[in-house]
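REQUEST FORM: STRUCTURE PREDICTION
Request ID: SP-0412
Submitted by: Lab K.M.
Chain count: 1
Length (residues): 321
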Amino acid sequence: MVSLPRLVPGIIARNARLKLAALGLAVFLWALLRTTEPTTGVNVFTVPVRAQIADLAWALEGDPQPAAVQVRLRGPTEELIRIARDGTTLRVPVDSVWSADTLVELRRDWVVLGGATGLVVEDVAPPAVRLTLQPMLSAVLPLEVVTSGELDEGVALAAPLTPDPQNIRVRGPAHRIRVLESVRLRPLDLRDVTESGAYAVAVDTTGLGDLSVTPLNTTVGVRVEPEVTRLLADVPVVVEGDIDGSYEVMPSVIEVQLAGARTPVNGTRPEEVRAVVALEPVAGLEPGQTEVGSITFQGVPPLVRVLSVDADSILVRRTAP
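STATUS: Completed
RESULT:
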């Protein structure tokens, strides 16, 4: 008969590798179960509030009050750790606005959990936030062309600078839109203009702040021609508003030299050109008194300049009370 002490080592040694593998697998499964066993906890997080205004006639003015709330979450520890690391928000959807000052009751399902499983929002404090909103307005405004520099010598603008499109759509707070009359373009440098054509120019958004502008880019049509001069003789000199012939002007006609692009200069109608003395400086004259008057010109087309006149001064005499 074989004794028990001699038998036990034999039993242990039989299929030793298989037995060791089974033991190792059992230990691994035990450790895996220990590490994957869910643990739960509760934590309080400070969460920023984000309002989403779906009503296009209104926009949020400033941050919600308060701008952050306390959210108590319960769930798996690893998910709480992830929220602590990545952060989250509480989104307040506003589909329609009834008042510029709105108090919104907060809902727990507005807390963004980012697909986390097992997390439960237990409480949100405070339970409401106040939103201050402002009415929005959309308007179509004309574009204003601005220039810098000068054209090369010998050429001149033959037509007004025209943006394309001529109008622009601007959207923003109503009180700011209502005070706008136009929107300026960035200056077009005339030193870069060498020929007629369309030149790309961006909208000048300086000072517009958060106003929405569409489009942001446009073109400006430029037409240039050779510069010419033209002499007009016998241009009449008149006193502004003198329909009764109460004033005598000396000289009564002058010679005027015009300059500009060929088309507008040649298109000037001499019979429409007048040298006009302002009435206000001579209105207080007594009959027989004389005053030197300054003149401006009527009937001269835009883009045409008056280079010179043949009279250094215009004398005006009151002839009748």
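NOTES: Helices lie at 4-13, 16-36, 77-86, 174-177, 262-266.
Reviewed by: T.R.
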